[in-house]
């Protein structure tokens, strides 16, 4: 597997001869595109058509549960099975500053793949596929810029899949109670903006 990791990395990783515009684009994708997660969570919870709000908020709740599980699992794997990043072992070229912490699985990859899979499973096929395309772009960019191995992204995808499975099992058992508590908390914390009509009830 390590041989495959090195081979794929050498094929994807940028070099000093790579176009500057491509490195700039990859830097934006690698560093900033992950913001789509909080933006969609906030947007789908606070706004939308009244008849779709309950289903939107269920997606948000399940995706958040999946993210919490997946990110916790990713952190645990990183501590228990540390794996050095390419630049830490003097492999390839690096175009993005990063701490030399454990690379497997990728936290960015775990987060975006979990979110994309959540939308694929629980929202709309088109939105899930669109987010999967974003996830693949983020995965490519972080390997291209030299801060991750390709298999770090595969690991993130698999952890995200397990996170979604956990969220669905938890929702099957306690979904109604979770939804009720979240609604009560939301109405308590956002009573003023709800009254003003700034956000949906």
Distance between the termini: 51 Å
Structural class: mainly alpha
Radius of gyration: 19 Å
The poorly predicted ranges are: none
pLDDT average, as an integer?
94
Q: SSE order in H/E notation? A: HHHHHHHH
What's the story with the biggest beta sheet?
A: none
Query: Roughly how much helix do the residues carry, as a percent range?
Result: over 70%
- Per DSSP, the total helix count is 8
The dominant shape is elongated
The fraction of residues in strands falls at: under 5%
Number of strands: 0
Layout of helices and strands:
Blueprint: H1 2-12, H2 20-32, H3 36-46, H4 53-80, H5 107-122, H6 125-144, H7 150-189, H8 191-196
Q: How would you explain this protein's 3D organization?
A:
By secondary structure, the chain is mainly alpha-helical. 33% of the residues are buried. The protein starts with a helix and ends in a 5-residue tail after the last helix. 72% of the residues lie in helices and 0% in strands. The chain is built from eight helices and no strands.
């Amino acid at each position: 597997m390590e041989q495959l990791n090195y081979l794929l990395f050498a094929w994807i990783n940028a070099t000093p001869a790579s176009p500057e515009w491509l490195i700039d684009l990859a830097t934006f994708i690698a560093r900033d595109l992950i913001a789509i997660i909080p933006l969609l969570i906030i947007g789908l919870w606070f706004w939308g058509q009244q008849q779709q709000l309950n289903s939107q908020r269920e997606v948000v709740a399940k995706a958040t549960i999946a993210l919490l599980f997946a990110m916790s699992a990713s952190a645990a794997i990183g501590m228990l099975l540390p794996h050095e990043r390419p630049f830490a072992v003097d492999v390839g070229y690096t175009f993005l500053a990063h701490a030399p912490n454990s690379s497997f699985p990728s936290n960015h990859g775990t987060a975006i793949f979990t979110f994309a899979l959540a939308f694929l499973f629980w929202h709309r096929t088109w939105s899930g596929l669109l987010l999967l395309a974003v996830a693949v772009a983020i995965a490519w960019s972080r390997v291209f810029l030299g801060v991750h191995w390709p298999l770090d992204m595969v690991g993130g995808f698999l952890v995200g899949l397990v996170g979604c499975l956990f969220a669905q099992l938890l929702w099957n058992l306690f979904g109604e109670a979770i939804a009720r508590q979240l609604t009560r908390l939301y109405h308590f914390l956002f009573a003023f903006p709800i009254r003003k009509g700034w956000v949906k009830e």
